[in-house]
């Protein structure tokens, strides 16, 4: 768990994003950011509170709400816990430039976690039920996210 990459990518005098720090918490929250990025276009950023950081994935086509619909989830740098409430406008020219809104937020229950698999139940306002993140073997950053029948 490290925030080095998160810090390296950002200029905290210019971005409204929090600098943050590793923060061990006893909560298990998640957030889905709606990111209207100037470069990458609109996507979801899915973040799970885990081991003092927010484990993060960019989901280009959005978090699936239909059972068994598989979507690519690209793991990105760990974000600080404070980022769970972040929304705002990242100025032009900066990393992640564009508008960030909160699509959904809530708690999750961890069901199973291994090196290449995280299974959890989301208890959000929009997203509810059993979800799976499965690491693809061909690329260390690529995962699939899908909902399954609970
Ligand atoms: Mn993003």
Which descriptors apply to this entry?
150 residues, mainly beta, 8-stranded antiparallel beta barrel, globular, binds manganese (II) ion
Question: Can you tell me about this structure?
Answer:
The chain has 150 residues and is mostly beta strands. 3% of the residues lie in helices and 52% in strands. The chain has one helix at residues 4-8; strands at 29-37, 41-50, 53-59, 71-79, 88-90, 98-114, 117-124, 128-135, 142-148. The mean pLDDT is 97. Residues 35, 37, 43, 45, 58, 96 line the site of manganese (II) ion.
Structural class: mainly beta
Strand-residue proportion: over 45%
Specify the number of helices. Answer: 1
* Overall helicity: under 10%
Strand order, largest beta sheet:
1-2-3-4-9-8-7-6
Hetero groups in this structure are:
manganese (II) ion
Number of strands: 9
Distance between the termini: 30 Å
- What profile does the largest beta sheet have? 8 strands, antiparallel, barrel
What's the overall geometry?
Answer: globular
Order of helices and strands: HEEEEEEEEE
C-alpha Rg, in Å? 15 Å
Give a short synopsis of this structure.
The protein is mostly beta strands and 150 residues long. The protein has one helix and nine strands, in the order H-E-E-E-E-E-E-E-E-E. The radius of gyration is 15 Å and the shape is globular.
Blueprint of the fold:
Elements: H1 4-8, E1 29-37, E2 41-50, E3 53-59, E4 71-79, E5 88-90, E6 98-114, E7 117-124, E8 128-135, E9 142-148
Antiparallel strand pairs: 1-2, 1-6, 2-3, 3-4, 4-9, 5-6, 6-7, 7-8, 8-9
